[in-house]
Design a protein that fits this description.
CATH topology of the largest domain in chain B: Globin-like
Shape of chain A: globular
Oligomer: heterodimer
CATH architecture of chain A: 2-Layer Sandwich
CATH class of chain A: Alpha Beta
CATH architecture of the largest domain in chain B: Orthogonal Bundle
CATH topology of chain A: Transcription Regulator spoIIAA
Strand order of the largest sheet of chain A: 1-2-3-4-5
Number of domains of chain B: 2
Structural class of chain A: alpha/beta
Radius of gyration of chain B: 32 Å
Strand content of chain A: 15-25%
Chain lengths: 131, 279
């Protein structure tokens, strides 16, 4: 089974979804991400879905679940790069995902996470560049 | 439908030219079809009479006759002909056919009457087709115009780097909301916008349905990572919204100018006067 790679960049985890997100892959991602947040002490999770053309209600709910899990583990989830058609579909499905922060692209998403870290600080001092 | 006696077919075959001539004369005396040239009319009459004969043979209006008539009606509707002209074009065939039948069956009035009635039945059915085809063509035109209007009335304006405005004018229904939403989201992607001001100064009424449409648009923009501000709610509309219990739960400013000021401030910019106001 495919697994979505989770990259650690500074204080954040970066997940770039570039394949069709099948249900089992999505569930594996939810599980992996929880473990990685705990292991790395990340304060933010950046999920880039710019390559996703189809988001059904299950994927929408999984994204919301991921955000919920991450929040319990003190990390903020930012979904970036959603396509207009996907946004319209989600709204029509009634999934406006109120708990998830969004940003137009990865750069702005990272800025959101940095702003949060500046606000709350991080547990691991070594992840913040103090030079 | 019962099979028609071959009589009608024979009559048409034998008197084709005469029927066409009389049909044209009939049309001319009605004063209709002035917009078409005589040759166009003759071509249309001939192809229709041909298809009509085929139908008379089969005892019911054939596929070809249906298609021919539907196509003709559609073209005429698109050209702006009134429906009465197309209907009278078909009805004008009645008399020439009746005359031909009476002439051919002079000695058998009963048979002649039967053929005339058979032709009349067929033509009545055709008139029904014409009206249906005309209504369809008209609906097509109306739909097309509606699309055009909604395209025209939903511009997305760039106010500043990363700040878009969506001045809404007219009533928001579901199909228009769809267009508005698509345009807005595409503009957000194209401009990399972080703020969108939805100005509803031109929206005459905001009821629960319109509010729901607005909320959908706002939710979709938020999913793309852009924040929405509502501006231009008129006092009367604000009153109605409160009375209806409509809650938009977004930043709302009275005017577009205030909304722009807020958007600029949110993105870390400020408008500074270079010299004292009025000086």
């Amino acid at each position: 089974m495919d697994r979505i790679p989770i990259l650690k960049i500074g204080p954040a985890l970066l997940v770039t979804i570039q394949v069709d997100l099948h249900d089992d892959v999505a569930m594996a991602l939810e599980e992996d991400l929880g473990n990685r947040i705990v292991k790395s002490g990340a304060k933010g999770v950046l999920i880039d879905i710019s390559a996703l053309e189809i988001v059904d209600s299950f994927i929408g709910r999984t994204l919301a679940n991921i955000a919920g899990v991450a929040r319990l583990l003190d990390a903020e989830t930012v979904v970036v790069g959603m396509r207009p058609a996907v946004a319209i579909t989600l709204v029509e499905l009634g999934l406006s995902m109120p708990g998830i922060r969004t940003a137009l692209d990865a750069e702005r998403g990272m800025a959101v996470i940095r702003a949060r870290i500046a606000e709350v600080g991080t547990a691991d001092d070594h992840v913040v560049d103090k030079r | 439908m019962a099979r028609r006696p071959a009589g009608l077919v024979d009559i048409i075959a034998a008197h084709e030219d005469e029927i066409i001539r009389q049909w044209q004369a009939e049309l001319a005396s009605n004063g209709s079809e002035r917009r078409l040239s005589a040759r166009e009319i003759e071509t249309q009459c001939r192809s229709m009479l041909d298809a009509f004969r085929e139908s008379a043979e089969a005892g019911q209006a054939s596929e070809r006759l249906h298609d021919l008539l539907a196509g003709m009606t559609r073209t005429r509707a698109l050209q702006g002909f009134p429906i009465s002209e197309t209907v009278s074009f078909v009805l004008s065939l009645k008399r020439p056919l009746a005359d031909a039948a009476i002439k051919a069956l002079e000695r058998q009035p009963a048979a002649a009457l039967r053929e005339v009635m058979a032709a009349g039945d067929l033509i009545d059915g055709l008139v029904r087709n014409v009206t249906e085809a005309f209504a369809r063509a008209r609906e097509e035109i109306i739909l097309h115009q509606q699309q055009e209007i909604s395209e025209l009335s939903t511009p997305v304006v760039k106010l500043w780097d990363g700040i878009l405005a969506l001045p809404l004018i007219g009533t928001l229904d579901s199909s228009r909301t769809q267009v508005v939403m698509e345009n807005l989201l595409q503009a957000i992607v194209d401009e990399g916008a972080q703020m969108t001001i939805i100005d509803i100064t031109g929206v005459p009424t905001v009821d629960t349905l319109v509010a729901q449409h607005l909320l959908k648009t706002i939710a979709a923009a938020r999913l793309m990572g852009a924040e929405c501000i509502i501006s231009g709610i008129r006092p009367q509309i604000a009153q109605t919204m409160v009375h209806l219990g409509v809650e938009l739960s977004v930043v709302s400013k009275a005017t577009l100018a205030e909304a722009l000021g807020y958007a600029l401030a949110q993105s870390g910019r400020a408008v500074v006067a270079r010299r004292p106001a009025g000086g």
